[in-house]
Prior knowledge:
This protein is an all-alpha fold. Helix content is 88%, strand content 0%.
Amino acid sequence: MSASWILTTLLIVGCLGGLWLDGRLGTKPWFLLLGLLLALIVGLYEVARVALGQRKDRS
């Protein structure tokens, strides 16, 4: 799976999960923001890991 799909999938899951939790707990928009922040951090880490892994393979 390419890095762009990983980042996109994580952001969608973080957004939907945050919206679901906010709806269940009545905490709008805190879990949405937390979900997006966590998804962005993990997604960027995965993008960097994939990019650096491909860089090592080319050497």
